[in-house]
Amino acid sequence: MRHFVLFLIILFLGFKGFGQEQTRLSSLQNRLEVLAIEYPELDEKVNVNISNTTLSNFLLAISEVHQININVDPDLNSVEIINNFNDVSIQNLLFFLAKEYNLKLDITGNIISISRYVLPVAEPEEKQLVVKYNPIGNTISLNLNDNPLSKVFRKITDESGKNLVYAPGMDELELSIYLSEVNIDTALEKLALANNLKMAKSKDGFYLFNTPISGGESNGVERAINKNDNFYYRVVDSLNRIIEVDFNNVPAEDVIYTIAEDLNLNYFTASSLNNMGEVSVTSESINFDKLLEKIFESLKSQDFEKIINDQNRNRPQTQAQNISERAGAVFTYKKENNIYYFGTENQLALKQTEVVQLMHRSIEMLSNPSSNRRQNRSNRNNFMTGSSNYISGNNSTFGNNGMNNNNQSDFNRNIDRRTTGEEELNTEAIKKLIPEDILNGININIDSELNSFIVSGPSTNIERFKKFITYIDKPVPVVLIEVMIMEVNKSATIETGVSFGIGEERVSTEGQAFPTTSMRLGAETINRVIGGFDGFGSLNMGKVLPNFYMDLKAMESNGSIKILSTPKLSTLNGHKAYLSSGETTYYAVTNQNFFGSQIPQTSETTNYYPIDAELALDIMPFVSGDGEITLDINVIQSSFNGQRIAENAPPGMNSREFSSIIRMRDQDVAILGGIEERTKDDSGSGVPLLARIPVIKWLFSERRREDSKRKLNILIKPTVIY
């Protein structure tokens, strides 16, 4: 019975194919007849007797003889014919060849293209696909019969709104199952089970499908399914090793090995990574090196917590041993020549030494520059001229001076030691900028000549140290400070008057008459002037006494002095700049000492102490992130006034000082000041009443008017240079 049914099916298909062939030939014959009406050449007769000739050559010969446009497919060169035709039209000849050799004739205008006829393959009927979803009960009904997986998943997603994801290469996988009103989660699990698939549901609600892994080949979806819901990753950019990860409490060794193999990385394992610990990471885009860094950082923190817990549980005598064992089992990695090395920190293969050079700042913490003038002022030795006077004679003080030289050499040696110690402190001070957790596990030496750190330790710790150094190694701004110091002195003085009297002795005439008048007239000169008035008749003024004198004064002076100084200072941000300009003088201090009681001896020593008058400027700038500058400014101006309270006393000084903290923008100008000193003096003396009468008051009084003004202004202009 089965064979009979099979025979009927074959017979039916044969009749169906025969019917299709007859239809094609009839259509071809009709088209040739229509074409022959337009092109009579197709009705011309042919007499041919050929053997062992290819079909393509035969057709081309007919085309050339009868002037018919025929295009022959090169594939017909393999067909050989043996025929004898007498009085056959070209139309019938072409139809015979098409029927005999299964040819296809395509007619385009007056061009006939001849090629092999390929029987069209019947498209298979699309198999019925039934998917019904009930949102109320979250159930689904499936009726699948060898339906393609891609169409099934698309249909389920459209009906239920659930997203189904499958691994590459599973599009045409045929699925078959029949389920009725089954919970959708259960239904999808059974669908995977019935078709030998693996299924897992991710945190974000996606259903992940995959075929069983074979031959060690895998991809991100496969591993996400194999690790179930707690391990998913996807390679975003294999060239730059960018991946998307989402795993929770997954063994670290599985993460490292799986992703490294998928990225085709070269790696070497110095020791087994078993029991490294579990990690949890979620990121949409992370570099593989960054992922390793975060994994090993989290593992180290877990090891530290375990050490603390073990210290609390273990007996005191075993604590040190447990800590050392734990420390030796801390896992780490390093990357060298594009090869990843994994193991523990105490393994030599994972340790390395690098030179980390600072590019923008000094390896030493620079202190504020010290002023030589200040050092000389504080460390200057007194110049001593000593003469020891004894009753029995004079002795030299050479021995004392020699002792002072020895003390001076000891002092210099102490200064050298102190300088060396300060340099060591400066090089160590920069380490204080680095947090302790960055320095943990590495050894650091400082090479001042190369401005570098020499670092040895685990690769991960060194990389963390290098990142921090790169973060703080920024160009330190240089601040150019332009200072303009302006001192203006203005004065105006008028002195007039007439005074006379009797001195103790004769006075001769002397003084200046022009341009200023300040003269003292003696009795002889005055009598000569009085004698000149004898021509006034009976008026006789007489003569003055020999000791008589008269002072005449008429003087006016004006002065204007302007002193301008424009020093410029440059210093690093946060460091003090100092400028000083002045002079030094000395004053003597004499000490006298007595020795002995019965025969007293004296020792007298004269010391010369320096005293300075200067214009000193201290400025410390601080540049903030927004470009503003904070300046701590101190200005001292002192000068000798030429006065002493005693002959050997220190000289008198006038001092002025500014101290200010200001905040300003780059290249702004700030004015400090000014200190202004103004003096007015309007004094006089004269004969009562007469000294107040206009005009003649100048003959009966002495007057002095003085008006002076001194002003000091300081302008500051900072400029930040990077």
UniProtKB/TrEMBL annotation:
Q: Name one GO biological process term.
A: protein secretion
Which stretches are transmembrane? none
Q: Where is this region: Disordered?
A: 366-414
GO cellular component labels:
type II protein secretion system complex
- Regions of compositional bias (Low complexity) in chain numbering: 367-382, 392-412
Give start and end of each Type II/III secretion system secretin-like domain. 554-721
Coiled-coil stretches noted in the UniProt entry, renumbered to this chain: none
Domain of life of the organism in this record? Bacteria
Instruction: Extract the InterPro entries matched here.
Output: Bact_Secretion_Sys_Channel, GspD/PilQ, T2SS/T3SS_dom
Task: Name the family.
Answer: Belongs to the bacterial secretin family.
- What is the official name of this protein in its record? General secretion pathway protein GspD
Q: Which organism is it from?
A: Salegentibacter salinarum
